[in-house]
Write a structure and sequence with these properties.
- The chain is an alpha/beta fold.
- The relative contact order is 0.18.
Length: 249
Amino acid sequence: MGFFRKNQGPDTVLVDFDRLPRHIAIVMDGNGRWAKKRGLPRRAGHAAGAEVFRTIATYCKDIGLDYLTVYAFSTENWKRPQDEVDAIMGLLKKYLLEAIGQMERDRVKMAFFGDLSLLTPELRELCHRTQEISKRYEGCQVNICLNYGGRDEIIRAARAYALDCQEGRADPNHLSQAEFSGYLYSRGVPDPDLIIRPSGELRLSNFLLWQSAYAEYYFTGVLWPDFTKEELHRAIASYQGRNRRFGGV
């Protein structure tokens, strides 16, 4: 695909599409503040953010990205007002129903990271159906972190590993990072190369704590509903300008 130039001149963004990160992860933050700035209910911000997610996910597939992981709903988000939680879950249902109808055309694989047991039976079934359909496809995989927390993921993995040790399926004397990674929600998925956080916040917020050990970060003040393909280009260009040494020289 080669290079892409945006805004020729001093602010040119140069992206090498032949050297993309393999895996990009995004904290989709700022929906509520976007709505508040416009005098709208928070659910309007989530609706706008859902449309941006659809656009960015499709674009990542089109440019040849292997993996996109998004933080949709954390283990802490249940503390939000019930009407806001209901609105988020309603948008998820709408998106999954549409995705199932379009997966044969779009051929985007979908997976879910997180504890889905707290979702309604209907939502759990929709998640299961999309993952089953996805098994037929190759190409870009979109991972949706839903009722997800990085610490919770590590604790669950540790419990599962301890049980395997107790029942003789694993030997704690030979535990490696690669083996432990196999107990995470993200097993089989490479760690993210680039983590993007919109909204101006400068923290991970319990997102992919194990997997982010050597990720590169891109922070922007743009709120998620205002996030564009051009902002994605800026993040990728920033990533491509860095020297990743992974602890070496």
